[in-house]
Amino acid sequence: MASSSPTYVFSADTERVDRALVHRWLSEEAYWAKGRPREKHDAAMDASRNYGVYDSDTGRQVAYARVVTDGVFFAWLCDVFVDAELRGQGIGARLIDGVMAELDGLRIRRVLLATADAQGVYRPFGFDELSGPLAWMIRTREG
After folding, report:
1. What burial class does residue 134 get, using C-beta atoms within 10 Å of its C-beta: 0-12 exposed, 13-18 middle, 19+ buried?
2. What is residue 38's three-state secondary structure?
3. How far apart are the C-alpha atoms of 21 and 31, rounded to whole Å?
4. pLDDT at residue 138 in the model
């Protein structure tokens, strides 16, 4: 007898990403990207590595992450999002596990991310707060 629970699969295929869905998620629901214009979102995706998790039965995308990297030394994991209706089922962990496997294959030395509330999601993958003599700095501009 077949299971009624969906199976979720990770993919690093950028062509598979539902750009309209991801833009809606981020621009309407993500605290860090509310109001993000579609053209800027698409440009950021085009300049990044893009990842998704999909329902294996329907092919529907259920999660997304983007990585900005030089492919050698540094990567920034960003725009991590899981469909709000499906949170708590391990989909985010499946997504991060897949992304980290891809980046580990590149032997990237530093992977950075920022989160206001999901530290517990990332700790099992080796992430921790910044410490040591480095002082990260930021430059921002309006718009």
Report:
1. exposed
2. helix
3. 16
4. 76
Closest CA to 50 of 29, 61, 31, 66: 66
Contact in structure between 58 and 41 (CB atoms under 8 Å): no
CA distance 36 to 74: 25
For 8-115, give the CATH class: alpha beta
Q: Which two tokens stand for residue 93?
A: 């962990």
What length is written for the chain?
143
Q: What is the predicted pLDDT for the residue at 64?
A: 98
pTM score, two decimals? 0.89
> What are the start-end ranges of the H helices in 1-143?
19-29, 38-46, 91-106, 119-122
For 38, other C-beta atoms within 10 Å of its C-beta total 12
> What confidence tens digit (pLDDT) does each residue in 31-68 have?
999 999 999 999 999 999 999 999 999 999 999 999 99
